[in-house]
Amino acid sequence: MSQLTRRNFVKTVGLAGLTSMLAACGNGGGSGAGSAAAGETVDSISVCLASEPDSIDPALNSAVDGATMISHLFAGLAKWEKDGKGFKIVPDCVTELPKGEDTGDGKLTYTYTLRDGLKWSDGKDLTANDFVYSWNRAAGPVLSGDYNYMFDQIDGYAAMWESKETGETKKNEETGEDEPVLEFVNPDAKLNVTAKDDKTLVVVASKSCEPYWNELLAFPTFFPVREDIVKSDKWATDPSTYISNGAYKMTAWDHNSVITVQKNDNYYDADAVTMKEIQFYLSDDANNMLSNFENGTWQLIDDVPTNEIASLKDKYPDEFKVDGQLGTYYVNWNVNLEILPAGTKLTGVEAENARAEIRKAIALLFDRNHIINDIAQGGQVPASSFVAMGMTDADGSQFYENAGDKKKNGYIGYIDVSDKSLEKNFDSAIETLKKYYKYDEKQKTFSDFPSLTYLYNTQESHKMIGEYLQAALSGIGINIKLENQEWNTFLNTRKNGDYGIARNGWLADYNYPMTFLDMWTTQSGNNDVQFGKGAHASVKAYSIDTTDVGGDLKVENGTWAETYDKLIEAIKAETDTKKAYAMMHKAEDLLMSTGCICPLYFYTDLYMVDKNLKGFFSIPLGYKFFTYSTLKK
Q: d(Cα 299, Cα 45) in Å, to the nearest integer?
């Protein structure tokens, strides 16, 4: 999930090794909520996570701040619950989370019984058919939500997206070439999700997703919406039409200022909800956040001024929190950005291989230890791979520790991020770039590298990192302009491929490395790099061979869709755990070979919370939970 400052979480059972990485959820610091007298318990809090959300439609949201709000407003089949110092998945709208029944063909059938008396916030009954409708809506091509691929483990998904050529062509505006027009083969196809009756939901899913299936059920994209409500495109922007089924209902939205949610008396567990009102203030100004926290107006802020971090740690030892997160902060390139010098004679596969080599060389120029120690300052760890620290491998070790070729290279991952490697990395990068650009040996600069623009969303820390990257490249003659956009605009610019280079961040959506890998398939709504799209769609520059780890897939000189997409498909169909993990390493190898992903560091979660707020917790995907909290002033 996209990280504003997205992406995940640790299941208590079977993940003891990971639980130890999580800092205990904190208590925190401002001086008050409203005008409450000292010692008085208040049931309304004000918090600030981010600026105006791009969307809080469960099927369209792809950001952590939106997911936190949605998790308070909606209830799915499962939810996250604090369990000591860890977290666990528990039933939400259902009486239990049963194991699937083996169908004998690589699939499992899950049968869920909904709780009695489930209702929407307007008092209407919620039924199993609401889940059937919602999942098909979120998974299908009509909506084409960013997270539609999260449903690809459910039987029927492939049929929904199967397409064929119509025989007609249309001109690609990017390449100027004619491309075939496609149409969906099964426009009426549905997921194999059925309502046996109003209270019984039956789901047929792949056996391979069994280890993280319940975690998917707690993910916002799987939450129900009501068909008569969501027929309006604007339903999720207006409190009068924002009908939900969770612990809260939206009562006001002053756009670009504050979203107010209040306890939903129709929620099945309403009697246990202790925090009756939450005001989600909307801001991306870290100084404004800190001021409102220090004067007691806001009880939680999800960002702080970067230049204040050191002093805040000392000034607010109980309020300033650094929690563990399963995520990676990185820079990504638009794969279709032309970075070869004007007049190059390289074309086709040769040209793409050259671009990949150039992008990887650029990644060597950045001092990740400087970024974490002098800019981010939150206990982050330099990242040498994309799949985040904390994700387990087949043998229980950490996935990132087995990335790349340590035996051959002498370091973990795809880049040596140690301090001692800086000079070696720099020299290697310069030698590579000399192959393609004019280099002034006296000035030690390149003269014909195309100018670049680095896109980031408005936030001080992102700006400071951008300025460092800019300085690092300008030192060798590469000009890079910085451009910032508001959060919701930024998300769509990146998603649409209207950029050259951009900051990015991803937090896991479930505890399995696939959450960092399937987002890069051609049709994924989170494929910001634009792999397999535009001019890149026809580039046959990739090869994959899984036969050495027991797989069947072997493709030489294929397109992204013919290699990476097929590899992800094969992994998701693989029920042998060892083989699946080995193939996921191959997927990351292929992804990193493009140079389009430049990891900088593995995330931690920095925030400040009132020390008198009890019952609040935050999980490693970045979600904050206030439902069962209390605040005594």
A: 6
3-class DSSP state for residue 17? helix
- For the beta carbon of residue 162, count every other beta carbon within 10 angstroms: 11
Q: How far apart are CA 226 and CA 74, in angstroms?
A: 11
For strands 163-171 and 445-446, give the pairing. unpaired
Q: Please choose, from the candidates 611, 511, 609, the residue with its C-alpha nearest in 3D space to the C-alpha of residue 19.
A: 511
Confidence category of residue 25, pLDDT binned at 50, 70, 90: very low
CA–CA distance, 314 with 354 (Å, rounded to integer): 48
Closest CA to 84 of 19, 14, 15, 9: 19
Cα atoms in the Cβ-side hemisphere of radius 13 Å centred on 172: 14
Cα distances (Å, whole numbers) of residue 366 to 331, 361, 411, 412, 447: 11, 10, 17, 17, 20
Q: Which residues, at least 6 apart from 464, have a Cβ–Cβ distance to it below 8 Å?
A: 306, 375
pLDDT confidence band for 601 (50 / 70 / 90): very high
Three-state DSSP class for 375? helix
Q: Which two tokens stand for residue 33?
A: 């909520």
Q: How far is CA 561 from CA 31, 143, 230, 357, in A?
A: 55, 22, 33, 21
State the virtual CA torsion across 143, 139, 201, 120 in degrees, nearest 10: -30
- Dist CA 48 CA 38 (whole Å): 23
Q: How far apart are CA 284 and CA 261, in angstroms?
A: 20
Say yes or no to pLDDT of 241 above 60.
yes
CA distance linking residue 176 with residue 166, whole number of Å = 20
DSSP conformational letter for 23: P
pLDDT for res 178: 81
Asked whether 97 and 77 are in contact (CB, 8 A), the reply is: yes
